[in-house]
Specification:
Chain B: One of its GO terms (biological process) is transmembrane transport. Chain B: Keywords: Cell membrane, Membrane, Transmembrane, Transmembrane helix, Transport. Chain B: This is Peptide ABC transporter permease. Chain B: It is found in: Cell membrane. The complex is a heterodimer. By secondary structure, chain A is of the alpha+beta class. Chain A is 32% helix and 24% strand. Chain A is built from 17 helices and 19 strands. In chain A, strand 4 and strand 5 form a beta hairpin. The longest helix of chain A is centred in the N-terminal third of the chain and has 18 residues. Chain B has a domain of 169 residues: MetI-like fold (Orthogonal Bundle). The N and C termini of chain B lie close together (10 Å). Chain B is mainly alpha-helical. The chains are: A alpha+beta, B mainly alpha. At the A-B interface, helix 1, helix 7, helix 8, helix 14 and helix 15 of A face helix 2, helix 3, helix 5, helix 7 and helix 11 of B.
Chain lengths: 507, 307
């Protein structure tokens, strides 16, 4: 027995040595909720691809945490021929991680690959169809010929599919090798990848923007929030990136020494959209009444721990097209009841709210909404669906209740990307409404390249949808990061694309 | 005996076939992976979705897809994950050993603990030791396994920082997940061992052994325990099958890189090839274990063989 005890003590001691944070100086460990399974820019659509790959690849343009579009691999650009042609001047003396030079040929290769057969099998191609040809002018100048002007193109060039890839490397090793062994021009180069477990990167000292402070970065894929937070608390993970930590776990992290929560407004917005075709919500006055009946500020305070901002239209304040002068519809149950009376809706009217069943936070929000609606005499039932069923079958097929949850994360930060898909006749997210006037506005803004003019038009669209009360715009949620105190120069990115060039770790 | 084994194997093949067919069919009712794959990609048209479906082979009739899968399995090709095109065979090759090792360690731990405890309870029937063991077992039964797992993490990883809260980084990583599973298993196993032992102790040959003047230890471990073996082997064998199913939750909490985690993520992503493969492998495993138990049972007990 004594020997057993001794052995146990020894084992525990040994384990202590093994488990105590054994970070090499300069190694940062990040917990990410999902393995995209493929590191090729044209094969993915996942935010958690970007949160890793933004350190491996560069685009012609770059959009950092401040969401300003700045030069990336292109040092400048000119719009020519009324926006039908964009000329890019490329950065010189840039090399890929394998030593291959970056030049106009690499740009042409990247886009021909994206727009050709290889890109057709992936989800990125459709974002870039406005590009008809990429013409090499000289080694460091390329012309993008556009079939139609695309006002969001420069932003999209900082996006996933437009990351510049190495032509020789891919020709030499093949597409499949590239999927699992990515090479780019970014600040960190690829080291190793274990599917569903982790990906390791190391600093690329020759990066054009200067060598990174860190030596190594490890991304571990941890799906379960409580597990990711336990790793953070145990000091084995330095940063937990969104979307992992639910609002409810913030106090746990705050209470633990040595780690903290950093939040930043994200592009993700939540709305309860209306069935404008049938049920009591076919009546505009009823829809307006419902918006007046819900105290969004109270919901944010009590359920979301203050980690959200109410929105006036279905976009975040970060989006291009957001109108800061638009006023929030106030909480006013009396006005709601008056509007309902006007619409001939008496107490006891019923409606159904469809939500994503596994979104526990939103289920609480839906219950609060239902309670507010009962105050004005509407009995709301909540119908939870499995997320995929809701977005695959129920919404596109027009089989929702009178109201349904829509979460949207417009990564382009441009209202067009939301509004067109939500309101244009025949779009898959718009099963109920058809409004020629709105269609005309939505089509019109797409051909305007003047930024100010287009912004005004997008703002007009937002006001138009508010006038027709097409949805209850609920709130814009914050992206929640869990961060160890040993991380220095950390800046939370709204879109989870953490570029780690300037980040360092202390002891 | 040969005939008995032959029929059992036929049955096993039929079961595996039925399971894969059901799973392949059922998961296709739950939604379109093309939409899952294109979310966040911006403006998606029906033509885009059609293109993605074609690339994934989803536009073919169900039976063609199923046949493709089954014929692939026979040559060891499980296809490619919809999530990034990773080889499913490679994913399974990593996950299966992780799950098997965890399951075996848990079962072994549980057997090692429950046999002496069960025997002690049976021998001291009605006395305080028996009562204590039975109460402990009831407590063990009442824990939900994920709660127990989270409590262990809180104490051993966060408060004392002795054990890693997740991942598989060597023998030390087995401690908490295996302990969680073993505690839950032991709770039932102790009761089983106790009941079986009580029955055996009442039999005449035990009385004879005692009358011969053998020591109590010899009576218990040499004569009685051997005769308990038949029901216990069957039960532990069958339990191993159930264990593989129950491991999903534990794997998720501990981020264990096993079949459970793989299956869980495959369901969420509508990753048909991965889910089909995991279920096929699991059902093959469970069916073969049951088969082995049946055969072992027949070997241990001639009465069953001759029936």
């Amino acid at each position: 027995m004594r020997n057993v005890k001794k052995a146990l003590t020894a084992a525990l001691l040994a384990s202590t040595v093994m488990v105590a944070p054994v970070f090499a100086a300069g190694t940062l460990t990040i917990s990410s909720p999902q393995d995209p399974g493929n590191w090729d820019p044209i094969d993915t659509f996942l935010v958690n691809w970007a949160s890793v790959a933004t350190n491996i690849f560069d685009g012609l343009t770059y959009r950092g945490p401040d969401l300003e579009l700045v030069p990336g691999l292109a040092t400048g650009w000119d719009e020519l021929d009324d926006g039908q042609r964009i000329r890019f001047t490329l950065r010189e003396d840039v090399v890929f991680h394998n030593g291959e030079p970056f030049n106009a040929e690499a740009v042409r290769f990247t886009f021909e690959r994206l727009l050709g057969e290889q890109g057709a099998a992936g989800p990125q191609q459709s974002n870039y169809v406005a590009i008809s040809e990429v013409e090499v002018i000289d080694d460091y100048t390329v012309d993008f010929h556009l079939s139609e002007p695309d006002p969001v193109l420069l932003t999209k060039l900082a996006g996933y599919g437009a990351m510049i890839v190495p032509p020789q490397y891919i020709a030499e090793h093949g597409e499949e090798h590239f999927d699992n062994n990515p090479v780019g021009t970014g600040p960190f180069s690829f080291v190793s990848y274990s599917p569903r477990e982790e990906i390791r990167l190391e600093a690329f000292a020759d990066h054009w923007d200067g060598a990174p402070e860190l030596d190594n970065v490890v991304y571990r894929f941890i799906t379960e929030p409580s597990t990711a937070v336990a790793e953070l608390q145990a000091g084995r993970v330095d940063i937990v990136i969104p979307p992992t930590i639910p609002v409810g776990m913030i106090p746990t992290i705050e209470a633990h020494e040595g780690i903290s929560v950093v939040t930043v407004p994200s592009p993700t917005v939540q709305a309860l959209r209306f069935n404008t075709q049938s049920g009591i919500t076919a009546d505009e006055n009823v829809r307006k009444a419902i918006i007046y009946a819900i105290d969004r500020q109270a919901i944010i305070e009590s359920i979301l721990g203050g980690e959200a901002e109410p929105i006036t239209s279905f976009q975040s304040p970060l989006a291009f097209g957001y109108d800061p002068d638009m006023e929030l519809v106030p909480y006013d149950p009396d006005k709601a009841m008056a509007l309902l009376a006007e619409a001939g809706i008496g107490a006891g009217a019923t409606l159904q709210i469809d939500v994503r069943g596994n979104d526990s936070t939103f289920n609480e929000v839906a219950q609060a909404v239902s309670a507010y609606l009962s105050v004005v005499g509407i009995n709301a039932t909540i119908q939870p669906y499995e997320t995929n069923v809701l977005i695959n079958d129920i919404i596109p097929e027009g089989r929702t209740g009178e109201m349904f949850q829509q979460a949207w994360g417009g990564w382009t930060f441009d209202y067009d990307n939301t509004a067109y898909l939500m309101y244009h006749t025949g779009e898959r997210w718009n099963p109920y409404d058809s409004d020629p006037e709105l269609d005309a506005l939505l089509n019109g803004q797409r051909s305007i390249t003047d930024r100010a003019e287009r912004e005004a038009m997008l703002q007009e669209i937002a006001r138009y949808t508010a006038d027709r009360a097409l949805e209850v715009p609920l709130y814009n949620v914050n992206a929640i990061y869990g961060v160890s105190d040993r991380v220095e120069n950390f800046e939370a990115a709204p879109d989870s694309r953490l570029r780690l060039t300037r980040v360092s770790v202390g002891e | 005996m040969a005939k008995f084994i032959f029929y059992r194997i036929l049955q096993a093949i039929f079961v595996v076939f039925a399971v894969t067919l059901t799973v392949s069919f059922a998961i296709r009712l739950t939604g379109d992976p093309a939409i899952m794959l294109s979310q966040g990609a911006g403006s998606i048209t029906e033509a885009d979705l059609e293109r993605i479906r074609e690339a994934l082979g989803l536009n073919r009739p169900f039976l063609v897809q199923y046949w493709d899968f089954v014929s692939g399995v026979f040559v060891g090709d499980f296809g490619r994950s919809f999530m990034g095109g990773t080889s499913v065979g490679a994913l399974i090759a990593r996950a299966l050993p992780a799950t098997l090792m965890l399951a075996l360690v848990s079962l072994f731990l549980s057997i090692v603990i429950s046999i002496p405890l069960g025997i002690t309870a049976a021998v001291s029937r009605g006395k305080w030791a028996d009562q204590a063991i039975r109460i402990l077992s009831l407590v063990g039964l009442s824990f939900p396994n994920f709660w127990l797992a989270i409590m262990l993490v809180l104490v051993f990883s966060i408060t004392f920082r002795l054990l890693p809260p997740s991942g598989m980084e060597g023998p030390i990583s087995f401690i908490m997940p295996a302990a969680t599973m073993a505690i839950i298993l032991t709770a039932t196993n102790v009761r089983l061992v106790r009941t079986t032992m009580l029955e055996t102790l009442r039999s005449q040959y035990v009385m004879v052994a005692r009358a011969k003047g053998l020591s109590e230890t010899k009576v218990l471990y040499k004569h009685a325990l051997r005769n308990c073996a038949i029901p216990l082997v069957t039960y532990f064998g069958l339990q191993f099958g159930g264990l593989l199913g129950g491991i999903v939750v534990i794997e998720r909490v501990f981020n264990w890189p096993g079949l459970g985690t793989l299956a869980f993520e495959a369901v969420a992503a509508r990753d048909y090839p991965v889910l089909q493969a995991v279920i096929t492998v699991l059902s093959l495993l469970i069916v073969s274990i049951n088969l082995l138990v049946d055969i072992a049972y027949g070997l241990l007990d001639p009465r069953i063989r001759t029936e």
